[in-house]
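Lab meeting, action items carried over

1. Structure of the two-component assembly. Owner: GW. Status: complete.
Input record:
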Amino acid sequence: MLNLRSKGRFKELLLISLCIVMAFTITACSKKERSMVLATTTSTQDSGLLDYLLPIFEKDTGIKVKVLAKGTGEALEVAKRGDADGLLVHAKAQELQFVKDGYGSERLEVMYNDFIVVGPKDDTAKLKEKTPSDAIAAFKLISTSKAVFISRGDKSGTNTKELAIWKSAGIAPNGKWYVSAGKGMGAVLQMASEKKAYTLTDRATYLSMKDKLDLDIVTEKGSGFLNQYAFIRLDDSKNKIKTKEANEFIEWMISTKGQKLIGEFGKDKYGMSLFIPNAKK
Amino acid sequence: MSFYGEVSGVVFLSLFISVTSTIIASMAGMVLAIPIALKDFRIKKYIIRLAETFMSIPPVLMGLVVYLMLSRKGPLGELGILFTPTAMIIAQSLLVFPIVFGLTVSAIGTRGRKIKKNCVALGAGRRDTLILIIKECRVQLLSVAAAGFGRAISEVGAVMMVGGNIRGETRVMTTYIALETGQGNFNKAITIGVILLLVAFMVNFLLHGLSKIDEK
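Predicted assembly:
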């Protein structure tokens, strides 16, 4: 008797779990909400900007934005393959090439902040003292003093900027002191903090993580530190993408309301805007 | 969204994806493996070697393959399912399948043959033989499924690549831990880590319980 009953229970359990799985699959398929995939950089996610903006946007338009946070280089590749509907990145030269190659029709600047060089609190290479605002001189000093420098090493916007600065400084960085991490901004800041190393970062990600890091700003506010973020309208002739939703998102971000919200983000917590809106109307 | 709301969503999705892929992979893997375990033929050895090789395929490699297949520029791009839970289930099923297949072949082996012999002697048909073997070996088969589930719930590479770690959509426990660690939120990462362990423990406990019921 016991045997029969427990066997029945076993079958029952299996049946119930199968039903649950099927019910989920059905509801998952029948859900018809408006949504889009936004390929963007790790800095917009790690700084918390999108977590702050997207719920408001969803309330306004009913469109759910699914965020794929990658380095700019990878985000551009994802968009090239038609796997994203919108693109928000920060590497101007690569963006212009992307548009020139016919993958996008228009580049729209939306906001900016600036890059900074951060380093260990004791500032072993004395950047704070000798190169408080000159990025190129700071990089030269890092390489001559062989202070450890962590590079994103992932073709992201920040990595592109970093390589451009090395190039302007006339240095081909290699050696034990130059660490190519292949990780997002947050992870690289952590690594720099752990290894007492220098790195180039956008100000927003640094400020949002500052309390967890043993890093100080050593070089900032010089010319050449501008970090411009831009949307790209993607070409929909080759791939089936959700252009309409993507355009609504772009319009909302460059609208007066979107721009105001961007400017306000972070003011209460950090005493300053993490991103400064600058969309052209 | 509150932290708890987000966490429960993440845990739920993790379970849903890994359980579904384990069920799919187990059904396919066992149905194919049992006949092979019972028969001897020339290329059997090679099939088993191949399965064993795929048992240790790095999840990121599987992620890459599935990514390229499902990408809009890929052969299955028309479906538009990259960066959805469906894509994650496909990747995990493919990861778990060789594990279930390989382990089933070795678990059924000798015992299955004995049962088959008896069945043949008693004049049972093929279908009845198969059903009887599954019934008799369900304890072993359940632990095979548990091993497959262990692989699915714990891997991060494939789900990160084909799911994209989209918040509230394709973020599972492992990708959540990777993300929060990168942002320095160790508390959140540890919380999910502990939940992940508890879930694994509970599933194994449950499976063990099921096999106990059967043994009675």
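2. GW to write a short summary for the group page. Key points so far: Chain B has one domain: 3-215. Residues 85-122 of chain B form the longest helix (38 residues).
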